[in-house]
Amino acid sequence: MLGFQDETWWTRLAQPEVHAWAGDEPLRLLPNERGGGKEALACYGLLRADTGAMLLRFVEGRPVSQVTEDYLGWLCQRFAAQGKRVFVLAWDNAAWHVSRRVRRWIGAHNQRVKRQGGCKIRVCGLPVKAPWLNPIEPKWLHGKRAIVEPDRKLTATEIRQRVHEHYHCEPQEPLTQNAA
């Protein structure tokens, strides 16, 4: 199973720099007015090469090594249940991808799979500063344009709902960043 993985931030604010087709009148978006609270939501995503489906998990917090491990574990459980034995993971060089902690987790995971069965992970790193090589990047861009709200700030629930509807994927509980 080949998958292209990346993280993105879904902003809750109106986005005046986003361009869209709006018919006769141009779309005018309100300027960002930052207030208290979270202005964006982090989300892990995987684009499956075999089906084109997106597997998404939002994050309570930000992408860090521990959350990456939780996301990879969730993916491997799903793939093992589908009878997949090897998961080829293509991703960039984000700090939480190449961290010593994540590399050790992947090694330990693969050893556990060797003994007990499941789905192994084979990492295929993408070149530095070459985001166009990851097919999930345009998916993120189109999704952000599709869910934008020009007139008001969206709630976190509205963002999650719109993202799941846009990508036709089932909502999952958000991953949580544990306090260190």
Number of helices: 5
Uncertain spans: 29-36
Strands, total number: 6
Give the mean pLDDT: 87
| Biggest pleated-sheet summary | 6 strands, mixed
Q: Shape from CA axes?
A: globular
Main sheet strand line-up: 5-4-1-2-3-6
Q: Give the N-to-C terminal Cα separation.
A: 33 Å
Protein architecture, described:
By secondary structure, this protein is an alpha/beta fold. It is 34% helix and 22% strand. It has five helices and six strands; from the N terminus they run E-E-E-H-E-H-H-E-H-H-E. Strands 5-4-1-2-3-6 form a six-stranded mixed β-sheet, with helices on both faces. Helix 1 runs parallel beside helix 3 (100-116) and helix 4 crosses helix 5 (156-167).
Topology of helices and strands:
Layout lengths: L1 E10 L28 E9 L5 E7 L4 H17 L4 E6 L3 H4 L1 H17 L3 E6 L10 H12 L8 H12 L7 E2 L4
Parallel strand pairs: 1-4, 3-6, 4-5
Antiparallel strand pairs: 1-2, 2-3
Helix pairs in contact: 1-3, 4-5
Question: Which features would summarize this protein structure in a list?
Answer:
180 residues, alpha/beta, 6-stranded mixed β-sheet, 5 helices, 6 strands
Structure described in brief:
By secondary structure, the protein is an alpha/beta fold. The chain has 5 helices and 6 strands, in the order E-E-E-H-E-H-H-E-H-H-E.
